[in-house]
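Lecture notes, continued. The same structure-token format from the folding unit now serves as the input rather than the output. Read the line below as a description of shape only.
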């Protein structure tokens, strides 16, 4: 268990990153500062993983409690803004997000928040959740699909056509064709953490295509995807989440051992 003074010093050392995490999750500066102060005051529960990762998780839990408080105040249609005068409308997007977040199992919820929202690498997420990297990745993917509404991209044949256009554009290094299938806010998740935005994701896709590996369409943990092979062995897999014929998320798994831990179904087998 970490000494309280040590944890407080580490909290202060990582303050800017923790502020960014809370600001992204809460959306207001006032709530962000109050959550940081509350989390700092409550330190002392012990950091079982890396200190930075544990502090991020601690801030995240406090943010979730704050968001739940907002949801509880939504019956009146608004929440106090803390100024003693006006009232701030509850963001309906956050309320919808909370409904889905609460529907996730505890493991899915924590893995999704740490890996997707806070951008922790999969190995760090696994340490915090007390699971193997493969299990943590599966939980994060399951949570992501439920939050993002997997299946909204249409029937499987239509989704497969979008994925094939994406792969063809990546092999050709065609930025216009890639832009036609990637949502501008697309996120690619991997063991190293998320990559945001169509330009960065397109660059990574081009590198994947340049590897010259044989690929096969597959269902990756139930999602439409593709598996790459080298020497007849599966070495990487990509699962896609689509919405309105655009790719909004890619989940990339690399390494033969990690790929073999996935639930893979090959429709052309």
């Amino acid at each position: 268990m970490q000494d309280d003074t040590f944890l407080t010093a580490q909290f202060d050392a990582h303050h800017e990153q923790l502020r960014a995490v809370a600001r992204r999750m809460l959306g207001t500066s006032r709530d962000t500062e109050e959550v940081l102060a509350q989390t700092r005051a409550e330190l002392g529960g012990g950091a079982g993983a890396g200190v930075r990762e544990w502090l991020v998780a601690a801030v995240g839990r406090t943010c979730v409690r704050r968001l739940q408080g907002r949801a509880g105040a939504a019956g009146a249609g608004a929440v106090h803004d803390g100024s003693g005068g006006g009232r701030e409308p509850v963001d309906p997007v956050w309320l919808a997000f909370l409904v889905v977040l609460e529907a996730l199992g505890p493991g899915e919820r924590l893995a999704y928040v740490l890996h997707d929202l806070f951008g922790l690498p999969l190995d760090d997420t696994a340490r915090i959740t007390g699971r193997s990297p493969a299990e943590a990745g599966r939980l994060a993917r399951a949570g992501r699909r439920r939050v993002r509404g997997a299946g909204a991209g249409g029937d499987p044949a239509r989704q497969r056509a979008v994925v094939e256009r994406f792969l063809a554009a990546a092999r050709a290094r065609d930025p216009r064709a890639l832009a036609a299938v990637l949502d501008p806010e697309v996120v690619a998740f991997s063991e190293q953490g998320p990559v945001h935005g169509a330009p960065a994701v397109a660059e990574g896709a081009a590198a994947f295509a340049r590897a010259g590996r044989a690929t096969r369409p597959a269902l990756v943990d139930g999602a439409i995807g593709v598996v790459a092979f080298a020497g007849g062995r599966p070495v990487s897999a990509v699962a896609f989440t689509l919405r309105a014929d655009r790719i909004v998320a890619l989940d990339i798994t690399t390494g033969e051992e990690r790929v073999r831990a996935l639930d893979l179904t090959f429709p052309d087998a």
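Point for the exam: The longest helix spans residues 51-73.
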